[in-house]
Amino acid sequence: MNISELLIQERVSCCPQVGSKKRLLEHVSELLAKNVPQLSRNEIFDSLISREKLGSTGLGKGVAIPHGRLSALERPVCAFIKLDQPIEFDALDGQPVDLVFALIVPENSTDDHLQILAGIAALFSSPAFCNAVRECSNDACLLQRLTQRDLQQKTA
């Protein structure tokens, strides 16, 4: 997985003020809709909410990976949010969430979807990586830390 191919600066958000899971998913939907004219934020939100109804995408340790599928999409689109104040997300461990990596994929990309989700989950399973991301105070820092990890994985 190469995050730098999936994530652009316009879809990275550091410290937005959101008070609930619903508001967070609305913010995520706005980010994911940027530069994707064939999608509306409402379509994205509906897809994310539908997936959350099946079970929370909160992995634990403050990390969530909300995701969904949309037929109008041609390739995967990602967004990343670091919250200043963690919110309740119904995570598996019951802990609030402050790191959110969101993903939408084309309706028919089952293998790609699972590979990307697995890669994101592996990336955020590292406490050192999560701490480094949590230290960021702006969007540019977040994007740099996320794509720096790509470079480290390629040379390792």
What does this structure look like?
- It is a single chain.
- The protein is α/β, with parallel strands linked by helices and 156 residues long.
- The chain has one domain (3-155): 3-Layer(aba) Sandwich (Mannitol-specific EII, Chain A).
- It has helices at 3-6, 21-33, 41-54, 110-123, 127-134, 139-155, and strands at 12-14, 58-60, 63-64, 67-70, 77-87, 97-106.
- Strands 1, 2, 3, 4, 5 and 6 form a six-stranded mixed sheet that branches.
- Helix 2 (21-33) crosses helix 3.
Q: What is the distance, rounded to the nearest whole angstrom, between the alpha carbons of the first and last residues?
A: 14 Å
Secondary structure category: alpha/beta
- Please identify which CATH superfamily we are dealing with: Mannitol-specific EII, Chain A
Any idea of the CATH topology?
A: Mannitol-specific EII, Chain A
Strand content: 15-25%
Number of helices: 6
CATH class: Alpha Beta
* Helix-strand sequence: HEHHEEEEEHHH
Give the biggest sheet.
Answer: 6 strands, mixed
Please outline the helices and strands.
Blueprint (H helix, E strand, L loop, with lengths): L2 H4 L5 E3 L6 H13 L7 H14 L3 E3 L2 E2 L2 E4 L6 E11 L9 E10 L3 H14 L3 H8 L4 H17 L1
Parallel strand pairs: 1-5, 3-6, 4-6
Antiparallel strand pairs: 2-3, 5-6
Main features:
156 residues, alpha/beta, 6-stranded mixed β-sheet, 45% helix, globular
What's this model, at a glance?
The protein has 156 residues and is α/β, with parallel strands linked by helices.
